[in-house]
């Protein structure tokens, strides 16, 4: 039985007309990365939380598919001791994009959104509105209720 995130991944792959083999291979890659033992915040729960919030605002997003891909890939590579996590996550997305023969312009948009998470400030990207919404989603934990925010602080500290 598939969990909610795996179902969401299947939905996204369906929109991309990806074969079941490629879908499963990449779900394995993504989920294995997010389940690495050093992850306490930047894990599958974080991705699930972003998708819950995405559901609330999706009608405001013009390129839903690209933002969903960004949610899945933006923290896929995460080592708190390194400073190139976003670039490495972007490279992993490029591997996926090449394997599925994804449109190069859309690939650049997703990579651009992933790279924005290094500083969480807007830069010149194709769709600035979607970028702002995505960054708001990723930082929404900062405005959450006190108990959830304290758990976030604790978990991020554990990662360092």
How would the blueprint of this fold be written?
Elements lengths: L3 H12 L4 H15 L9 H14 L6 H10 L11 H15 L4 H13 L11 H12 L6 H14 L1
Helix pairs in contact: 3-7, 4-6, 4-7, 5-6
Major sheet attributes: none
> How would you classify the quaternary structure?
single chain
Radius of gyration, whole Å: 15 Å
Q: Could you give the order of the helices and strands?
A: HHHHHHHH
Q: What share of the residues lie within helices? A: 55-70%
Low-confidence stretches at least 5 residues in length (pLDDT < 50)? none
End-to-end separation in angstroms reads 34 Å
What count of helical segments does DSSP give? Answer: 8
The portion of residues forming beta strands comes to: under 5%
Total strands: the figure is 0
The coarse overall form would be globular
Overall mean pLDDT? 94
How does the helix and strand content classify structurally? Answer: mainly alpha
Descriptive notes:
The structure is a single chain. This protein is an all-alpha fold. Helix content is 66%, strand content 0%. The protein is built from eight helices and no strands.
Descriptive terms for the model:
160 residues, mainly alpha, 8 helices
Summed up:
The chain has 160 residues and is mostly helical. The chain has eight helices and no strands.
